[in-house]
Design a protein that fits this description.
pyruvate, phosphate dikinase activity, elongated, D-amino Acid Aminotransferase, Chain A, domain 1, 31 strands, binds magnesium ion, binds adenosine-5'-diphosphate, alpha/beta, Glucose Oxidase, domain 1, about 900 residues, eight-stranded parallel barrel, TIM Barrel
Length: about 900
């Protein structure tokens, strides 16, 4: 018999998969002896069974009843008992936290009779009706599917009639009226009544929470966070405690450290006389925890002590939800808290220093994505004028975009490539698509723990919240700043999530402190020192080397400053552009060998100069130079343009330019339907006489020049797009011949290794043969992904990848994160068979995957010697290579 329900006593944080993070951590807290209202947890397994079968799995109902009885016995009263009701909350909670994305119903067990019982035993009639109206509303939306906005409207109208904007000014009679109005609303909309049976309420609420797993916003959130769709949510049923029992009650949220900066110290918001979501939803202004310290010092001290207990136990920043019921503190939730990249580095470094976690664990807690975020530019402080508004700096970074006031506008404008800033009075989970589309989020209300702040931090978006000096009107699509200036939709604003400032117009950007550190070694502040510690440790533990893809001396020098241990891919095609195009054109169009040789001879010194500069910048480190790869016609003018030009000249009655005619002829001759699968890579070298020889000579002469200048150049020659060992053998013969020639001419030894890219399935599958001719393999995972999947990258990404991601064909684009199952398998085969044939074969990757955290893990696992990525990704790759080795 499957067990669908667990008591808190039987759970713990190691059971998060089964009990959800929330349930597992509640169990953990109660086992730690913290004051947690008793309850039980319905497993994610039950949810999965329900969602798969469409009905309650067998045995669930009985399991729930049994645990409910235990809860009732302990409380000494029954769920919804008319004279003294036990009330419970029914809470969602999945393996991975999805803040606010699913549903929770509070105050389950109230009905027309028990509301009076509750009023009597509590001695507080207002409280009883306040709880009841909350239940009817939450139940009405979550279980019965009535639009939240309709309830809000009723509430707003009542407040207007009472001449107040504060729900605390509504008295018991008002709230009783509200309950009736809500019930009518539910009946009008659903033709069903709000159920009076507490047992039915409980059962329906549990099933509704299950269903909320598939709510649209929850799906969207999961897709963004790469959370699998099949996990399901657990449901926690827990005795209610009441923060809405008057002024010595309240509810709040806290972080054990500042989640924006990582600074130690309890941090959070508290709202007196409030229940549940009130504090994060911004219905009323919460006070900072210092306010609680004044209001109720005893509870505050306890909260601080519990926060310390949790932080020591979890050895990490935690966030908590708590409620104070008439001076008694209850802990309602904890989890390892989301934080900014800045805070992640600072906290990891601090915890290592405190001896709470090892250096390895500290490294595990930061990420390459976070580091990349810290490398983004900041606003130039000297260029900012007067701030238009100022709010809470809730998620750092600099963002410029046009102001938009609802999620639809955000999505629409972002889809056309505009950068947008979503401006809201406050955000709700429904705003998620808009937040995803925006560069930054700006709200008029709420603190560091508000919905906007929490979600933005989780997504790494810039966020300024609680900017009280702006008045946001979503209807009018504008906000008014304190100086009276009006910002209409479409106006460009700049949002600084690190200071909380908002500026009109686009503020110019400068390098961040982290970037300055990477460039110069200067450790300007504690965040940067934390980054430095993490990188040092990563360098100490990683097995993978990190090289860069660079094809200019400047790029090579920057990569080296960033810690690159060589160049894994030096493309030569960029060197054929600009004014050299003319020479390339001449080479391609040459009628005679002599013409071609002349063009090649003119290109030679230019190429040599390129290589000399790069070898100098990377002196002592390997530089892998790839022979020309792309189809030649990429260096010629566009066929249509030429045809149009010629036709226009003819139409005007004149003679078309002779050169144009000649070019068109050549371009037409070389036209390919499928250039990516055409005359390129090693095929070019084998078919166009003299081209490869010229490139190899340029490399060889550059090596000679650098050697004579006293340097230690380490050029490696790489042949692209090889599919068969014969191709490589022929190419290599030519390379060796030219190297020998130059060696003879100059008397300088040229020990340049020759290797190949593995970027065709055939190459991977015959790697054992290819290794006979290759001293190294470099996986070109971009082409290997294209050719393995049969995807033309430029065509498929825009056409249907979004649909594929939606339909779950893959969880991430295979061009961003290496497809382990298919492409990865080819890599594995090639490494194994290549090494079997040539034990000292060097292996690396030079596709864009070389800078992707997930993929780096794979390359570590499969045993490559290095990854190579763009210079700016080098620090990220160092960090992730270190994390992969833990
Ligand atoms: P979410 O996952 O959206 O945070 P929760 O399940 O945590 O949803 O609940 C929403 C709010 O209700 C939270 O503020 C929580 O603290 C409060 N809450 C949940 N259960 C109880 C309870 N038993 N007593 C009092 N408040 C509760
Ligand atoms: Mg919660
Ligand atoms: Mg390629």
């Amino acid at each position: 018999m499957v067990r669908y329900v667990y008591d808190f006593e039987d759970g713990g944080r190691d059971l998060a998969g089964l009990l959800g993070g929330k349930g597992a951590n509640l169990a953990e807290m109660s086992r730690l002896g913290l004051p947690v209202p008793p309850g039980f947890i319905v497993t994610t397994e039950a949810c999965r069974a329900f969602l798969a079968g469409g009905e309650e799995p067998e045995g669930l109902c009985a399991d729930v009843s049994r645990h409910l009885s235990t809860l009732e016995r302990a409380a000494g009263r029954l769920l919804g008992q008319p004279d003294d009701p036990l009330l419970v909350s029914v809470r969602s909670g999945a393996r991975f936290s999805m803040p606010g994305m699913m549903e929770t119903v509070l105050d389950v067990g109230l009905n027309d009779a028990s509301v009076r019982g509750l009023a009597k035993v509590s001695g507080d009639e207002r409280f009883a009706w306040d709880s009841y109206r909350r239940l009817v509303q939450m139940y009405g939306t979550t279980v019965m599917g009535v639009d939240q906005a309709l309830f809000d409207e009723v509430m707003t109208r009542l407040k207007e009639a009472r001449g107040t904007s504060d729900d605390l000014c509504l008295d018991a009679a008002d709230l009783a009226w509200l309950v009736e109005a809500y019930k009518r609303l539910i009946h009008d909309r659903t033709h069903r009544d709000f159920p009076q049976s507490p047992a039915q309420q409980l059962r329906e609420a549990i099933l509704a929470v299950f269903r909320s797993w598939n709510a649209e916003r929850a799906r969207l959130y999961r897709r963004r966070e790469h959370i699998p769709d099949e996990l399901g949510t657990a449901v926690t049923v827990q005795r209610m405690v009441f923060g809405n029992l008057g002024h010595d009650s309240g509810s709040g949220v806290a972080f054990t450290r500042d989640p924006a900066t990582g600074r130690p110290g309890l941090y959070g918001d508290y709202l007196p006389n409030a229940q549940g979501e009130d504090v994060v939803s911004g219905v009323r202004d919460a006070v900072p925890l210092a306010g609680l310290e004044r209001l109720d010092p005893r509870s505050y001290r306890q909260l601080r002590a519990h926060a310390r207990t949790l932080e020591r136990h979890y050895r990490d920043l935690c966030d908590v939800e708590f409620t104070i019921e008439r001076g008694t503190l209850w802990m309602l939730q904890t989890r390892v808290g989301k934080r900014t990249a800045e805070a992640a580095f600072t906290i990891a470094c601090e915890l290592v220093r405190e001896g709470l976690v090892s250096s390895d664990e500290g490294l595990a807690r930061v990420s390459g994505d976070g580091l990349a975020r810290l490398m983004f530019p900041r606003f130039d402080a000297s260029a900012t004028g007067e701030a238009l508004a100022h709010g809470v700096p809730a998620s750092p970074g600099a963002a410029v975009g046009v102001a938009v006031f609802d999620r639809a506008q955000a999505v629409r404008r972002a889809a056309t490539g505009e950068e947008v800033v979503l401006v809201r009075e406050e955000t709700t989970p429904d705003d998620l698509p808009g937040m995803v589309a925006a560069q930054a989020v700006l709200t008029g209300r709420g603190g560091k723990t508000s919905h906007a702040a929490v979600v933005a931090r989780g997504m790494g978006k810039v966020c300024v919240c609680g900017a009280r000096d702006i008045a946001v009107s979503a209807e009018a699509r504008r906000f008014t700043a304190r100086d009276g200036s009006v910002v209409e939709e479409g106006t460009v604003i700049s949002v600084d999530g690190s200071t909380g400032d908002v500026f009109l117009g686009a503020v110019p950007l400068v390098a961040s402190a982290t970037m300055r550190y990477l460039e110069s070694g200067e450790q300007a502040d504690s965040v940067v020192s934390a980054v430095a510690r993490a990188l040092e440790h990563a360098d100490a533990v990683r097995r993978l080397e990190v090289r860069a893809n660079a094809d200019t001396p400047e790029g090579a020098a920057r990569a080296r400053r960033f810690g690159a241990q060589g160049i894994g891919l030096c493309r030569t095609e960029h060197m054929f552009l600009g004014e050299r195009r003319k020479l390339v054109e001449e080479m391609i169009l040459a009628r005679t060998d002599a013409d071609r040789d002349r063009a090649l001879a003119a290109l030679l010194p230019l190429q040599r100069r390129d290589f000399t500069g790069i070898l100098e910048a990377m002196d002592g480190l390997p530089v892998t130079i790839r022979l020309l790869d792309p189809p030649l016609h990429e260096f010629l003018p566009d066929r249509t343009d030429l045809a149009v030009r010629i036709a226009a000249a003819e139409a005007a009655g004149g003679q078309p330019d002779a050169h144009d005619v000649e070019l068109l002829d050549a371009v037409s001759r070389m036209h390919e339907e499928n250039p990516m699968l055409g005359l390129r890579g090693v095929r070019l070298g084998l078919v166009v006489p003299g081209l490869a020889a010229m490139q190899v000579r340029a490399i060889a002469e550059a090596v000679v020049e650098r050697t004579r200048a006293g340097g230690s150049p380490r050029a490696e020659i790489m042949v692209p797009l090889v599919g068969a060992v014969e191709e490589l053998r022929l190419a290599r013969e030519e390379v060796t011949r030219v190297l020998a020639e130059v060696g003879e001419e100059t008397g300088v030894p040229l020990p340049c290794p020759v290797g190949t890219m593995i970027e065709l399935p055939r190459a991977a599958l015959t790697a054992g043969r290819i290794a006979e001719e290759a001293e190294f393999f470099s996986f070109g995972t971009n082409d290997l992904t294209q050719t393995t999947w049969g995807f033309s990258r430029d065509d498929v990404e825009a056409a249907f990848f979004a649909a594929y991601l939606d339909k779950g064909v893959f969880a991430a684009s295979p061009f961003e994160t290496l497809d382990r199952e298919g492409v990865g398998r080819l890599v594995r085969i090639a490494v194994e068979e290549g090494r079997a044939a040539r034990p000292d074969l060097e292996t690396g990757v030079c596709g864009e995957h070389g800078g992707d955290p997930e993929s780096i893990r794979f390359f570590h696992d499969v045993g490559l010697d290095y990854v190579s990525c763009s210079p700016f990704r080098v620090p990220v790759a160092r960090l992730e290579a270190g994390r992969a080795a833990l």
